[in-house]
Amino acid sequence: MDGFTLRHLALAVALSSSMGAAFAATSNSFVDNAAAGGIAEVETSKLALEKSSSADVKTFANMMINDHSKANDELAALAKKHDIKVPDSTTLVKQAKEKILNMRDESFDAAYANNQVKAHEETIALFKKEADTVTDDKTPGGTELKGFAQQMLPALEKHLDAAKALQAAHPGK
After folding, report:
1. Cα-Cα-Cα-Cα dihedral sign, residues 54, 55, 61, 65
2. SS3 assignment, position 24
3. Is 36:92 a contact under the CB 8 Å cutoff?
4. Which pLDDT value is given to residue 160?
5. Predicted TM-score of the model (pTM)
6. Do the beta carbons of residue 27 and residue 61 sit within 8 Å?
7. Helix, strand or coil for residue 46?
8. Neighbouring C-beta atoms of residue 78, cutoff 10 Å
9. What 3-state DSSP class applies to 160?
10. Cβ within 8 Å of residue 81, ≥6 positions away
């Protein structure tokens, strides 16, 4: 090989390597928002286990921790499979804890119930939008993320119903 051809080969390899790195991890707004919401659900529910003395609140909080932890793991696995970047969980936990600080201790159960109703309404809207998205083979993980959203909707709607029942049982003071 002459020097000219070798330089072109080296340049082609360098370009393909840097292009591969540039496109290695794509971001996806559904993954970003679903991951953030899932972690917030787990963190607020952990706080509910610490702060609440109500059995129904603790039962609901345990359900949120179990269900959303499983969903978060499933979403992370799907994202990894399709090389979709997942938001840093340390940052998301920090953001969730900052939101939690806005809840007042004197009516924690009511604040938690209200938070859960609002959070689940927002999450259902997010998941419905993803479930109704027309996907193509060019979108990384598009079909599987759509399927994940469709699969999760019944459980999220059940959570919303339970959150509304909790809200009715613990009205604000």
Report:
1. positive
2. coil
3. yes
4. 95
5. 0.71
6. no
7. helix
8. 18
9. helix
10. 141, 144
Rounded Cα gap, residues 120 and 167, in angstroms: 13
**Which pLDDT belongs to residue 2?**
46
CB 167 within 8 A of CB 117: yes
Q: Tell which residue, 71, 86, 97, has the closest CA to residue 32.
A: 86
Reported as a single tens digit per residue, the pLDDT across 55-95 is: 999 999 999 999 999 999 999 898 888 888 887 777 777 76
- Two tokens at 125? 């809207």
Residue 104, phi then psi, degrees to nearest 5: -90, 140
For residue 108, what is the enclosing H or E element? helix 108-131
**What type of residue is 90?**
T
User: 159 is written with which tokens?
Assistant: 């959570």
**Mean pLDDT split into 10-residue runs, the chain, 173 residues:** 40 34 59 87 89 92 94 90 82 68 67 89 92 73 86 94 93 73
For each of the domains in the chain, give its residue range(s) and CATH number, in order of start.
26-169 (1.20.1260)
